């Protein structure tokens, strides 16, 4: 093997005095107690990065999802809604299984659409929904 030297060949190359001098320079072996704390400290930046990622990315998304679930659970007739497809309307009927919602999209013609409850993205009064639209267009 390249780079591996036996004790006998090292003694032949360095002589007996040179070998002892080389071994004396190696120093003492490190203690096991001091290395334990240092090994835990090396993981500290990784743990900090994971915590920051959780606080910035995951936690706000969980809050938004809970707010949306609460809004969908409290959905009632005459609430103004916007679907994920961008269709705005007023709730006129909620099915018995609460899986489907019928919304009226045009008051003049009485046009109604039956959509999944999970397809509703925003719930609120007409004023709240138009305020959100005005804020995003500015």
UniProtKB/TrEMBL annotation:
The keyword Ribonucleoprotein appears for this protein: no
Localization per record: Cell membrane
Pfam families on file: YajC
Membrane-traversing stretches: 40-58
The organism's place on the tree of life at top rank: Bacteria
Keyword Transmembrane helix: yes
Major location category of this protein: membrane
Record's bilayer topology term: Single-pass membrane protein
GO BP: any one term: protein transport
GO cellular component: plasma membrane
Keyword tags: Cell membrane, Membrane, Protein transport, Translocation, Transmembrane, Transmembrane helix, Transport
Family: Belongs to the YajC family.
PANTHER family xrefs: SEC TRANSLOCON ACCESSORY COMPLEX SUBUNIT YAJC (PTHR33909:SF1)
Protein name: Sec translocon accessory complex subunit YajC
Species annotation: Pirellula staleyi (strain ATCC 27377 / DSM 6068 / ICPB 4128)
Taxonomy of the source species: Bacteria, Pseudomonadati, Planctomycetota, Planctomycetia, Pirellulales
């Amino acid at each position: 093997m390249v780079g591996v030297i036996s004790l006998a060949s090292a003694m032949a190359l360095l002589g007996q005095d040179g070998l002892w001098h080389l071994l004396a320079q190696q120093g003492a072996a490190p203690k096991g107690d001091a290395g334990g704390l240092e090994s835990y400290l090396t993981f500290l930046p990784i743990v900090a990065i994971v915590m920051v990622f959780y606080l910035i990315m995951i936690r706000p998304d969980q809050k938004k999802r809970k707010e949306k679930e609460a809004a969908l659970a409290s959905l009632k007739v005459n609430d103004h809604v916007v679907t994920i497809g961008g269709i705005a309307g007023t709730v006129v009927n909620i099915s018995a299984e609460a899986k489907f919602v019928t919304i009226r999209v045009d008051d003049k013609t009485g046009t109604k659409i039956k959509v999944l409850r999970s397809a509703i993205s925003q719930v609120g009064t007409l004023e709240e929904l138009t305020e959100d639209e005005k804020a995003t267009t500015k």
